[in-house]
């Protein structure tokens, strides 16, 4: 080949390399090549400012709120006092200077190996007006602390509402960036949290002091907007080697959820309605096989969802069903086999999971044709199927999952190993705008986005994401 012919060839080759470096378009979707910070995620030291105990005698700490009943007209207010029980009363009202209502809660505490918890208070305040800003005070009689929240609008099909999405948060410096980044986004009205809260179980004897530090770290958000809790594997705290054999002990004492109001018999699976969304929380670490309580509950629950009232059907779970990273690979598979058919039949819009410390979004796919003899065991495009999103990228100390299966499977639309959070912005019964925000960017930047068309009201293919 002549010298002058080789130059365009080399230029072409160079261009191909540059393009491949930007995105690797294999047969599935996009594997982002964004160069993230490769430093190890390290937990913030115990004397960090974000863990500071609030000043004052027996001051309430670790304040958090969550939805208190099925339709969002109640709120559970929780906090911890250390020196003595003090009052479990919450004063509240719509005028910050006149908290004219009060509700009485209860306190509890637990022991875990050589640790004894503080006094953990839970108080449900009911009959709240929708779409109203309430002020509330806790610590009555000792050090009073005041916070506020806004109740959700009345449930209805075209009510706009914006959820934040965070998973696998932990308490590292990266966790702090994720929370700060979420707070910088003014749109989020409530957080759908997909499990793995404190990672206290990574410490010797599951040092439960790290449950306390976590509660104080997230208070700046959880005291002001409800976080909807999902139990992850780091909530199990099963440690028979130190005599701790009751699973989920710290989690169920500290984080109450309104499971009874949806007919559930355990706090690990339940549902709530919020604005135009129906949210079903499932338990990856409770029995889900046929005849189990969770199975029976879900079987009865799905047909109850009235899409004329709550068009958006959202499912939260910890362990993802569709995951093309080489971490926790296929751990969600047996639950997928049990329930995927139901999700397609009931046109679930989106499933959010965590567990894998990275980000991934699937196409609308299902894998329900297999019956042991027909060999049909590949995911196929399916307009009735949910989009599966893995958002386990909160930033905990275990670090990023960066090793992916190659080539990118055809069900996977976009994946990137960076820490971040997402926002699901419901506009009306047909449209929702979804964005994922990596921590390295400003809060207005979306590293992945998609317009969702509601599966019940507008079952057309969505606009392909960038
Ligand atoms: Fe996990």
Automatic annotation (TrEMBL):
EC number: 3.1.3.2
Catalytic activity line of the entry: a phosphate monoester + H2O = an alcohol + phosphate
A GO cellular-component term linked to this record: plant-type cell wall
Source organism superkingdom: Eukaryota
Alphabetic keyword roster: Glycoprotein, Hydrolase, Iron, Metal-binding, Signal, Zinc
Signal sequence extent: 1-20
Domain Calcineurin-like phosphoesterase: 162-359
Residue ranges annotated for the Purple acid phosphatase N-terminal domain, each copy included: 60-151
UniProt cross-references to PANTHER family, sorted A to Z: ACID PHOSPHATASE RELATED, PURPLE ACID PHOSPHATASE 10
Similarity comment: Belongs to the metallophosphoesterase superfamily. Purple acid phosphatase family.
Protein name per the record: Purple acid phosphatase
Organism of derivation: Musa acuminata subsp. malaccensis (Wild banana)
């Amino acid at each position: 080949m002549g010298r002058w012919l080789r130059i365009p060839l080399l230029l072409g080759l160079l261009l191909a390399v540059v393009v491949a470096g930007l995105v690797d378009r294999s047969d599935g979707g996009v594997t982002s090549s964004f160069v993230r910070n490769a430093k190890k995620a390290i937990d913030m030291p115990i004397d960090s400012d974000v863990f500071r105990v609030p000043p004052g005698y027996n001051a309430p700490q670790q304040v958090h709120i969550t939805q208190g009943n099925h339709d969002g007209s109640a709120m559970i207010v929780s906090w911890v006092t250390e020196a003595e029980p003090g009052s479990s009363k919450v004063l509240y009202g719509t005028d910050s200077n006149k908290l004219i209502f009060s509700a009485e809660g209860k306190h509890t505490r637990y022991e875990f190996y050589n640790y004894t918890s503080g006094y953990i208070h839970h108080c449900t305040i009911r009959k709240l007006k929708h779409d109203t800003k309430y002020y509330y005070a806790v610590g009555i009689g000792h050090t009073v602390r005041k916070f506020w929240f806004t109740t959700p609008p009345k449930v209805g099909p075209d009510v706009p509402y914006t959820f934040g999405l965070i998973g696998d948060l932990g308490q590292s410096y990266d966790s702090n960036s994720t929370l700060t980044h979420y707070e910088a986004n003014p749109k989020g009205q409530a957080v759908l949290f997909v499990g793995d809260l404190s990672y206290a179980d990574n410490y010797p004897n599951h040092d439960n002091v790290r449950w306390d530090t976590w509660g104080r770290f997230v208070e700046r958000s959880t005291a002001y907007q409800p976080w909807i809790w999902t139990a992850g594997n780091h909530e199990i705290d099963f440690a028979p080697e130190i005599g701790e054999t009751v699973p989920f002990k710290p989690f169920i004492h500290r984080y109450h959820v309104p499971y009874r109001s949806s007919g559930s018999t355990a706090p690990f699976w339940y549902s709530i309605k919020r604005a135009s969304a129906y949210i079903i929380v499932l338990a990856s670490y409770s029995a889900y096989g046929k005849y189990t309580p969770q199975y029976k509950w879900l079987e009865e629950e799905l047909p109850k969802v009235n899409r004329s009232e709550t068009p958006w059907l959202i499912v939260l779970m910890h362990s993802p069903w569709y995951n093309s990273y080489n971490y926790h690979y296929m751990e969600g598979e047996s639950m997928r086999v049990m329930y995927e058919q139901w999700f397609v039949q009931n046109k679930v819009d989106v499933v959010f999971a965590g567990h894998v410390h990275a980000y991934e979004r699937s196409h609308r796919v299902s894998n329900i044709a297999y019956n042991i003899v027909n060999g049909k065991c590949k995911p196929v495009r399916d307009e009735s199927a949910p989009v599966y999103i893995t958002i386990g990228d909160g930033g905990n100390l275990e670090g990023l999952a960066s090793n992916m299966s190659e080539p990118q499977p055809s069900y996977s639309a976009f994946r990137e190993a960076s820490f971040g959070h997402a926002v699901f912005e419901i506009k009306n019964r047909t449209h929702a705008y979804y964005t994922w925000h990596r921590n390295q960017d400003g809060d207005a930047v979306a590293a992945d986005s998609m317009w969702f068309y509601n599966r019940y009201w507008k079952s057309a293919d969505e606009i392909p994401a960038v």
